[in-house]
UniProtKB/TrEMBL annotation:
Gene3D superfamilies (alphabetical): YVTN repeat-like/Quinoprotein amine dehydrogenase
Superkingdom assignment: Eukaryota
Keywords: Repeat, WD repeat
Species name: Lamprotornis superbus
Ranges occupied by WD repeats: 64-95
Protein name: WD repeat-containing protein 64
């Protein structure tokens, strides 16, 4: 959980140091969890296709408060299109990979309903709705002075 203690993501949300990272099987999506309970999703596909092209950048697509405390593990289950997160609070939660919709936690009495994402619910300890970052938004471009660069060494 403290492996990436000093690494802070570029985001408009107060996320804290990153504590967990994972990618999808094709390494096009990067997921990160933070010490303050946030999870982030970045799209790296265009950047990895041609990292020398300055127009191709890593785009933040989603930021959401997933837990009230530190995220210690996360992974993507691509066949079902879900993200699983775990926290030091002892909870393991299930989310829709693209929208950040909360399905529930492991150990709950009701079954997971993975097909219905129409009614938005939140975990009991989280009051922030997910922030889906639109591609045409220019807000982040002004804040980031040091973009991520590919270093093959």
């Amino acid at each position: 959980g403290n492996l990436m203690k000093e690494l802070l993501p570029f985001s408009e949300h107060p996320s804290g140091p990153l504590t967990a990272l994972c990618t999808d099987i094709f390494t096009k999506i990067l997921l990160a969890g933070s010490k303050k309970g946030y999870i982030f999703r970045w799209n790296m596909a265009s950047f990895l296709e041609d990292p020398r092209n300055k127009k191709n950048e890593i785009k933040e697509e989603l930021c959401r408060r997933a837990h009230a405390t530190e995220v210690v593990e996360l992974f993507i289950e691509e066949e079902k299109n879900v993200i699983v997160t775990a926290s030091i609070d002892g909870s393991v939660r299930l989310w829709h990979a693209m929208t950040g919709y909360y399905f529930g936690y492991f150990g709950q009495a009701r079954k997971f309903e993975l097909s219905d994402t129409s009614r938005l619910i939140l975990p009991s300890d989280v009051s922030h709705f997910p922030a889906i970052i639109k591609e045409e938004s220019k807000h982040m471009e002004k804040k980031v002075k040091y973009p991520l660069m590919l270093d093959r060494d």
